[in-house]
Amino acid sequence: MIKVAIVGYGNLGRGVERSLKQNQDMELVGVFTRRAPENVATEGAQAFHMDELNNKRGEIDVCILCGGSATDLPVQTPEVTKYFNTVDSFDTHAKIPEHFSKVDQIAREHQSVSVISTGWDPGLFSLNRLYAQSILPQGGTYTFWGKGVSQGHSDAIRRIAGVVDATQYTIPNNEVIEKLKGGEKLELSTRDKHFRECYVVLEAGADEEAIRAEIVSMPNYFADYDTEVHFISMDELNRDHKAMPHGGTVLHTGTTHEATKQVIEYNLHLDSNPEFTASVLVAYARACVRLAKEKQFGAFTVLDIAPKYLSPIDDATLRKELL
Amino acid sequence: MIKVAIVGYGNLGRGVERSLKQNQDMELVGVFTRRAPENVATEGAQAFHMDELNNKRGEIDVCILCGGSATDLPVQTPEVTKYFNTVDSFDTHAKIPEHFSKVDQIAREHQSVSVISTGWDPGLFSLNRLYAQSILPQGGTYTFWGKGVSQGHSDAIRRIAGVVDATQYTIPNNEVIEKLKGGEKLELSTRDKHFRECYVVLEAGADEEAIRAEIVSMPNYFADYDTEVHFISMDELNRDHKAMPHGGTVLHTGTTHEATKQVIEYNLHLDSNPEFTASVLVAYARACVRLAKEKQFGAFTVLDIAPKYLSPIDDATLRKELL
């Protein structure tokens, strides 16, 4: 049995707890949190204060780090990797090289393994970009996200004065996707690829038109997109817009000879983004422990890990049943 | 530069020749064939008789074996792996374990690397089955092929007395695929998953109804499917049915908690099946040479090889650009 600790218990941590129940070769040692453990309502797991983690050395094969990329993981992954094998979902794309270097050095020094930036993007989408570009070097790769909830964009709306709560959906332009699949070559702007749809609850007396204008013109988040804003009641938001669906597409269109078109398409349709991400983390936690057993110390990403390491099934059976 | 030999020059071998032209880190040493080399019309490559291959030791980093799975590869892959690193597309699913064992033993003895059973199924589809099942263990995987030409089924029709030529299309049941994507759980028979469509040219005076009946009732090939048969002229067949499109879908539907549905979908839409398969072989030829440089001798499948080995781009750049 692979002994797993969950470090951080929000939506992602809860997703990992659920995923572990589906994996017979893994057992959960406990949830480690900065909150008072008695206030953390798990789904059966024992909760410990984060300070207890280092007392559990020898009882844990891998820590799945479920903190956020903005402030938690840049500190936590290097720190925890000193004493444990770790898996994280660090997803600030621009800072991945720096995060990798830092964690790699610590993992080599402390003879541990850390698999960073797993999940679906970065993660499964990165894999698919790599496979597709390696196989069809003469071609273009396009990534689309959604339809799904973007926490970052929802948060940005919530910070506007007069807004009580909000949910933002990122919506891919399916018309463009179909054209690309048909082999059309397109120069696509940010605005061409995705739309944004916002469901917003206002304080009583807030100015709808002013807030709409503030949203659609917000730099980085909305200004470069076509954005629709709907004002609804708190009841409607809670009833219809509190699920966390997501998904997306990696599309690679290439040619092998003259006009011979070849299209590789990878789609995810997810009812729950955090639970799916958690399931990816759990599979890579298995890979992490195997790499550590083979004394392949250091940092890894999904690009570095042979697919078979993710499976609990032995190599001969995989060849027989999946090839 | 990676020096590549093509062994066997049919549709697949020609596809490899074309693919190599798109890969700047590879050069083609030549095409090796059992035919008289002067009768082999390549697209620029030098042609040699197969007997010359062993004289080229030291000049070739990897041989891409482009023979058939029925009779060529079971003999050729073990034999050529004694002297060279090899890549093949052995696709007789039931015999892969035996082929792997045989080639693995020889590769270890002779300190070479052989990547067997690459292509898209087995190959990329196998990869996707493995990733999906490892991430969502509570779920079902469905593979659909087509719309595309099946050479085996076309050949089976051509062997019927009175048939001059034929093209058979395998057609997936898109209605069933949509239901599965919507999360329905279905018990699917062979007949539910695919249809078969046949375009057949008859000898003058052949009995249409008798031949139609012989086709649709042919065991293994057609009896378990709904099959449509169209009789057409040789001109029509040559004009409309001599391309080799193919493709298909690997669909995995799982749940992460109670009724939370998660769907992973991988699609290929291929204008040319042999050229795409060839492109996969070429990417794995690159991986093969890298594994040999690392002295990781033995047989490998796509399940055993880390994605980064397929790319000519260095690891740091891949992390920066694709993660």
From TrEMBL, chains A, B:
Keyword NADP on entry: yes
Enzyme class: oxidoreductase
The EC number(s) this enzyme carries: 1.4.1.16
Pathway participation: Amino-acid biosynthesis; L-lysine biosynthesis via DAP pathway; DL-2,6-diaminopimelate from (S)-tetrahydrodipicolinate: step 1/1
Top-rank taxon: Bacteria
Key word NAD present: no
Gene3D superfamilies, A to Z: Dihydrodipicolinate Reductase, domain 2, NAD(P)-binding Rossmann-like Domain
Assigned protein family: Belongs to the diaminopimelate dehydrogenase family.
Subunit structure comment from the entry: Homodimer.
Name of the protein: Meso-diaminopimelate D-dehydrogenase
Protein's organism: Enterococcus larvae
